[in-house]
Amino acid sequence: MKKQNLETICIQSGWKPKKGEPRVLPIYQSTTFKYDDSEQMARLFDLEDEGYFYTRLQNPTNDAVASKICELEGGAAAMLTSSGQAANFYAIYNICSAGDHIVSSAPIYGGTSNLFTVTMKKMGIDVTLVDPDAPAEEIAKAFQPNTKALFAETISNPSLVVLDIEKFAELAHSHGVPLIVDNTFATPINCRPFEFGADIVTHSTTKYMDGHALTVGGCIVDSGNFDWMAHADKFPGLTTPDESYHGIVYAERFGKKAYITKATAQLMRDLGSIQSPQNAFLLNIGLETLHLRMPRHCENAQKVAEYLESNENVAWVDYPGLKSSKYYDLAQKYMPNGTCGVVAFGLKGGKDFAIRFMDHLKLACIVTHVADARTCVLHPASHTHRQLSEEQLVEAGVRPDLIRFSVGIENAEDIIADIEQAINAAEKN
After folding, report:
1. Which residues, 6+ apart, have CB-to-CB distance to 33 below 8 Å?
2. What does the pLDDT read at residue 383?
3. Which carries the bigger pLDDT value, residue 309 or residue 40?
4. Is residue 386 scored above 70 in pLDDT?
5. Lateral strand order in the sheet of 365-366
6. Which of 58, 200, 221, 321 could be joined to 180 by an S-S link, Cβ 3.0–4.6 Å?
7. Close Cβ partners of 381 (under 8 Å, ≥ 6 residues apart)
8. Region 48-66: what's the mean pLDDT?
């Protein structure tokens, strides 16, 4: 059978029922799994057999959903985590330890920026933030002998910077490190970073993949393409014996699944940020319609962006689908079928006018969320990025007046009408 298309993978992949088994992925709501003798369990604990023994490490429901996301991204192995934040933490911590360093694109989600610059710094891991639009030779200056990874987002939250994936992949590989890309906003429906040289992909499945704002979750997908043994001195955790598992060398024993196996066997074992089987089940329901929802999000967002660009009260609009966007050409290269449903813009009245505008919205709600079926809005400088200093906000591409407008899958005319009435009401007040 030929390789299946993304639409079919969304529906059919992950769970393959056998004779007499449920057609729909079941929830394996159990902490433990039975075996017939002690030797069987011992082999599982030694990573000599595949199987399930405790849901903190692996669960059949979770693995089925991770397998579906892995196939959507075109990867070799994947794992679910309890949140997107946990996914990014594990993705870095799986190959870094105290004394190491990473390079990251500066315009990324505020929570991830804080994770890198504050929390992981306390753990002895340093980060250098770079301008993704800078020339490659300028970004290269940020790399150090102890650099272990390059990190970025395909479409940055909330500044909507479109990453030049090939440029970043070449930079990472020329310094012997993997490129880790957060693909939350684009999703594999619109962008598959592995095809452009990325090595590891992360997701906050809380967003478009779930689509209903029902579950918090994350995922890490490994392409299996990075050669850990070729850079063995940089990645001893993968290329030297793990004494906590009787001297297993992950890169030798597990090949293309080495990175995910280590993350599961070590990090999930010790830190336990597992996604619940119930949440994985609900996530799978969202994934089944991802290929239908993403085009509608993009179509609606394009109409909203074009309306905003024509409105005299709007100071500026950022949306990669607009020909006026500085990222239009990159978006056409990496995401020709659409980018995401998020539009960033500023109003001429500044921050106070923006707040009045948001307070008068009726269809769109002010929520600490983005990228689900319902239209919602946020002022990042006051909300998601409020922990950043003014200097850090500028570095992250978050203007003081930036409004993050997440366009849902309602009727586009109704969304635009809501924006229009809110702007008019804000003018009067």
Report:
1. 51, 52, 53, 54
2. 63
3. 309
4. no
5. 314-318, 342-347, 403-406, 376-378, 365-366
6. 200
7. 351, 393, 398, 399, 400, 401, 402
8. 92
pTM of the model: 0.95
- So what's the pLDDT on residue 385? 60
The whole-number pLDDT of residue 44 equals 82
* Nearest in space to 111 (alpha carbons), one of 88, 79, 132, 95: 88
Short-list 28, 25, 21, 2, CA closest to 12? 25
Closest CA to 322 of 310, 338, 306: 306
